[in-house]
Amino acid sequence: MTKIAVKTAQLSKSFEPDQSVVHQLDLDVYAGEILALLGPSGCGKTTSLRLIAGFERPDSGSIAINDQTAAGDGLFVPPEKRGVGMVFQDYALFPHLTIHENVGFGLHNKPKPEANEIVTSMLELVGLQQFASRYPHELSGGQRQRIALARALAPQPFLLLLDEPFSNLDADLRTQMRIEVRQILKSINATAIFVTHDQEEALYLGDRIALMNHGRVEQIGHPEEIFHQPATRFVAEFMGGTDFLPGVVGEEAIETEIGLLPQKVDLPIGTPVEIAMRYDDLSFELNPHSASQVEVRHFRGALNIYSLRLPSGQTVQAYKNHTDIISPGTPVDVRIDPGHELAVFYQGKAVNRRDETA
Amino acid sequence: MNDAHTMIETPNRTRKSVRWPSLRAVVMLWIPSILVAGIILLPIIYLVLRAVQAENGLDLILKNTTLLTILRTILLAGAVTLISATLAVPLAWLTTRTDLPLRRLWATLTALPIVIPSYVGAYLIVSTLGPRGMLQEWLEPLGVTRLPAIYGFPGALFILTILSYPYILLGVRAALQNADPSQEEAARSMGLNPWQTFWRVTLPGLRPAIAAGGLLVALYVLRDFGAVSVMRYNTFTRVIYLQYKSTFDRSAAAILSLVLVVLTLTLLYFEQRTQTKAQYYTNAINAKRTPKVVKLGRWKWVALTFVILVVFAGVIMPTLNLLYWLVRGVLAGEVIPGLWLSTRNSMMASGLAAIVTLLAALPVAIISVRYAGRVSKTIKSITYLAFALPGIVIALALVFFGANYAQPIYQTLPMLIIAYLILFSPEAVGAVHASFLQVHPSMEESGRSLGHSPLAVFRKITLPLIRPGIRASLALVFLTTMKELPATLILSPIGFKTLSTGVWGAVSEAFFAQAAAPALLIILVSSVPMGFMILGEKQPHKT
Hints:
The complex is a heterodimer of chains A (358) and B (543).
Chain A: E1 4-16, E2 19-30, E3 34-38, H1 45-53, E4 60-65, E5 68-72, E6 75-76, E7 84-87, H2 99-103, H3 112-125, H4 141-153, E8 159-163, H5 171-187, E9 192-196, H6 199-205, E10 208-213, E11 216-221, H7 223-228, H8 233-239, E12 243-249, E13 254-256, E14 259-261, E15 272-277, E16 282-286, E17 292-300, E18 303-309, E19 315-321, E20 331-336, E21 344-346, E22 349-350, H9 354-357
Parallel strand pairs in A: 3-9, 3-10, 7-8, 8-9
Antiparallel strand pairs in A: 1-2, 1-4, 4-5, 5-6, 10-11, 12-13, 12-15, 13-14, 15-21, 16-20, 17-18, 17-20, 18-19, 21-22
Chain B: H1 2-9, H2 23-53, H3 57-62, H4 64-97, H5 103-111, H6 118-129, H7 134-139, H8 153-178, H9 181-189, H10 194-223, H11 226-230, H12 236-246, H13 250-284, H14 300-332, H15 339-370, H16 374-383, H17 391-405, H18 413-437, H19 441-449, H20 454-483, H21 486-491, H22 499-508, H23 512-538
Helix pairs in contact in B: 2-13, 2-15, 2-16, 2-17, 4-5, 4-8, 4-10, 6-8, 6-14, 8-10, 9-10, 10-13, 12-13, 13-17, 14-23, 15-16, 15-18, 15-20, 17-18, 18-20, 19-20, 20-23, 22-23
């Protein structure tokens, strides 16, 4: 069993009465893991991070970092005494200090020579040793990002927090930086929590993902789990590219307007459910007599993704190779063709029989 | 999609606003801020109470002499504003849009009179054109022993116009330079000639800038004490001063002060409104091209004569006159005595004022940024009260308050410093507040998460980052205190002579040569902040 590095219990915070931003949050972060706090804006992920960092006081609940209470039971440890490093969204590099001084800022309790040594090794870690005597404004966005990381890591924090670390970078650099940051964090076996609203980023960078909504965790798990076995309709929707096809629970399968889905759920026959599908879970063929038809074609390079309108008016996505071009208005037959179990929701919650299908 | 998310995400930080301050913040920020607000408010509240409690208050306001004072003040303010606008608009146009020879030189010179404090300007006029003035001394050999009197309305009008028209000029010039030339081009393409275009397109576009500048000029006249006093024209400020000096019934002075404050507040209200409008206008039209230069042709010489006349009255004559009296004074050995002492006094008072005002401004600026909310906003507005209060009113309020409740510091240096604090806290709070806004809270949080205590973070991060604002605050308060007159005159400890009271005293007794050296020093000192203001105004339109 891996050690729990951070534990929050029943953590709540509200800024205006009756509007809790974080609501009874229970979260365990294991030592050495990177946890992604993912969610739409306003879901409470940044506030959760700031609570752990000590920039906000919780209204109730507790936070323990390295088995020591950081907040709760009338106790509140100020941020400077928590041993938590933080990388800010805007990097918050000090413009009046050089890169060396910035990275060394948290090493004020160490003797000078030792501090200098650490700064040098940190700059080496992020590959920017030649910039030591420059000032932050002389650096590019990606370089500032790495300095912010080096500065947060220099005091060897027990825990590293990253608040939307890549949101100020443009798309190309963002992809490159998340590879680099993951490598750096893994190379020193850091425990880290990072906040993002970008599901792709969370999938790539997180060892586990906690998906938040309205101040609560909707689901926490490994990226594959979150992506393929969403616990709620919200999770499926947020992870993207999902259509929800209405169906009705039948004897041996779920009945939909485009055929049967051979999955069993523990619900009475006749219960209306929703099936989450991505574009690779459906296939279609030309059929002049079909009541379904192609609505729009989206060219995606190697693929063409088609928006298909079913007789009920519902639209679903399906793909074909880029060599097949079908014009809008063409009648087609649509079939469910997943090759794996699809998530089924009743009243927004997944009702799949996990243990039997696993 | 990601960008959209980021944009929604940023207001996150404003949540901090509802945070409750820690005990430390209460002790180090809130209590000092409330103290500062109290110091500023108390004398003013006292003045109001004093005026309200006066038995014959209403009678006094309705007395003929009071109504006359109101009338005179409004008349002077109106006339100065009108003539200033008439001077400033053509000057602005000539120095921005035409092929006037030496255009840039005139552009600088026409803005210069703004650096002359009004009592110094009045001194320079009186010592040129008044009895025993320069002109009379030159004309005496020719048998001229009396010049037409310059005192009263004409003198006040003349000097205040010369000193304050730059307020309109600078605004109009900026508006002209930022205006979108395509509007004028559109008018031309629809068949208007240049003259018609100016009247029907350019001028209407300048209206907000003229209005904003005009209100500044009117406020300048309302608050002015020096020029009207030297010119012996009985507007509010002078009447209040005379009341205070001559009678023991100080309620009268208090009531008159309140009436003046009401007048000022009314103007200030309109000024605020037009200011935003003027900004809207200049911001709305983002000029990409510079407008075509208008060829003046044979009008060039008329225009040049006009500009030279204005520059002569506002810059050349005062300078020549100042030099004349300076040389005469030096030759007569009248300059040095007292100059060193009054310079030292001025520097000391100004230095203390700068430091005290900064220390008062710091906590106010910090809470107004870090604990934005109704209370901190109110405290900040209180520190801006002096904008609505003419110096003479603040000085009187302190005299009344001090004589009754603060006897130990009445007529001492600390009392004078408090007056300066009230007078100049808008400048200090403004400067510090602006620089503090630049320090993002994440900077400080970052310092905290790197293991530094709040105080260490303030010392190592916040302070270095707001240093420009601190410097600006110190400089502004120091330099404006150097030239301040009414409060210094009324509240200085007995025998405490400064540069400004030195000029005042010498001019009152027509010792013009004695006034020359301190006047020159004051002009030099006040050139610095005004220079910044002029340069600042010019920045947006580099061509």
